[in-house]
Amino acid sequence: MISVKLFPTLAARSKSKQRELALPFSQGITPLDILEREGFQADYIKYVAVMVNGRQAEIKTPLGDGDVVDLMVPIAGGVS
Amino acid sequence: MPGGYIGKLLFVDLSSGKIWDEPLDEQMCKEFIGGYGIGARILFSRVKPKVDALGPENMLGIATGPFTGTPALFGSRFTVVAKSPLTGTWGDSNCGGRFGPYLKYSGYDAVFFSGIASKPVYLLIDNGKAELKDASNVWGKDAIEAEIILNKEYGRESQVACIGSASEKLSLITGVMNDKGRAAGRSGLGAVMGSKRLKAVVARGNFQIPIANKSKLNQARKTYLAQLTGPFYDLFNMFGTAGVTGSSAHSGDSPVKNWGGVGVTDFPNAAQISDMAVMAKREKKYGCWHCPMACGGHMREGSDYRYHSGIHQPEYETLAAFGTMNLVDDVESLILANDMCNRYGFDTISAGATITFAIECFENGILTKADTDGIELRWGDAKAMLAMLDKMGKREGFGDVLADGVKVAAEKIGRGSEQFAMHIQGQELPMHDPKFGPHWATAYQYDATPGRHTQGSEGLAPMGLMDEVLGVKTGAQGGEVQAAASGETPSVEELLPEAFPRTEYTGRAEAHKVGSHYTHVMNCTGMCMFGNVTMEAHSLPDMLNAITGWNYSLRDVVDAGERIANIRHAFNVREGLNPRNFKVPGRILGKPPMTAGPHEGINVDIDTMGKEYLAAMDWDPATTKPSRKKLQQLGLKDVADAIGAS
Description:
The complex is a heterodimer of chains A (80) and B (646). Chain A has 80 residues and is α+β, with helices and mostly antiparallel strands. Chain A is 21% helix and 26% strand.
């Protein structure tokens, strides 16, 4: 099981509209997969910052069973 | 005159009462844009080095930019400038609300005050005519009361910029207020205004701001209004900055417990002072003048704490500085703290963080109840926090010790309290941790106003800027350009920005320059940063060119910003200051590294970032003095002579 916490604006725009999700674990699943399944497009995803188990992580970091994933939108950013 | 400007600067000598105006030079507009750019140019020329920042020779300026009060998107803002009594450096601070446009409608792009009035006064600027008035009916009132009194006298078409009662008592952590809760908070400029016995500026009038190309501006508005979508828009529109408080407390973006805590363990209830919890207390939205995003709010009446309805929603910085830093998870207490700050005129970052310092001193036995007038300052104690804030506002008892910020408080207390004073050169640090984003450290130490988070960087700039100006074909723009040529839809990989890795401290300097120089111009136009980062980088030059009739590219914008950065920094060099010598507290950088939480093991290499930044700026690696070559290239020969540049 993977616990996902969504930033309030992400939850509002997501398919499930939930602030917290409990997803079944599958090998190789990434935060990017979770966001895409919740209906987010690339131009939204690029603003999302990821924490896994309380540490900064990359959007394509493969997750482990039991991981807690925070998906948020920090104000800083927009670097291109 | 180019469009966007009234074309006049107002000057007031408060000692003699003399008032006069001068034309705003078109060349100055092109080179320094507005706001603190023009402010820095005027003050560098007219304020001598090493003056007493609270004395008659300091100058206080209130300056708009070419966007302010025009149909440009997000053009509500003005800047306050002076030598800072808090840091001894160049000082500037930025504010939204409603005053900026009305200053221009009253007939002036900016107003500058020198001297000290013999008794409290306010300046009325009434449709081109300026007059000093006796302020005895508003002196001693809090900033909101004063504004209400002055609005009643001068009507609904008047706007007021004023100081709170703590600024009258020269609290170094106060700012200039408007619209009952918007603040030019940083740099202690409220104390400068208080030292001049200047309570307020009231502006009204119906001057028209010329626009060079109205149809081009209309087209730009259409184009960029369509870009008001996406995650930043959602954040600002749905929640305002309060939306990030909870996630920032746990991600490591926000400092926790005076920069020494870990959010998930020390402040698990951060959600109680964030997004939905704040919205539950909100009555309606608030937006600055003509803002299409309206990120603010007016709160409903307090139930657990006594405050009336209509007061402003606290920003993220406020919620974090009073909440996350003090481990206070009671949202109504933070709403009240914000309103108290808006009345006393406190910079909420500094006020919250100063109480944090006092709490940590108390918890460590450096302070006792005998020192703190019987108030037990404990982590998480909202009532004690509010009681001490009230004393600070009145400069009463122990509040008098804290009312000038942590640096002065630590000097007065001694007893080893300095170890808990988190500041750079006297300014308390904002609620963004360099351990989360190293770009903050470069800005905190090397911007001419130390400890600022609104001055731009490689991590705080709109999309499209770096790619075009640095020719770096990565991330969003690069992906789209490549894919468009091939006819394929860009993949997510192509669109993900290649952000600077968090622990990569080298190679950031050019991007830091570009980000911060762009942001200086953006700030100086009077545009709001939140609007700017929600849209593409071109929004700035496109609207600037339509308003003024100029033909600025992104590169031209960045070059003007470099000039503004250099003159502000040269002001500090002329004061004998060297930011390489500014002490940055170890906790800010992870020296020693934290042993738990999102910053475990992180040690921010500010030495490398600073060294590379100085080299990129062509500032001397030891003295930070800009080279003569650089200053002359920027048209700043007089500045080069004044600082003895070589």
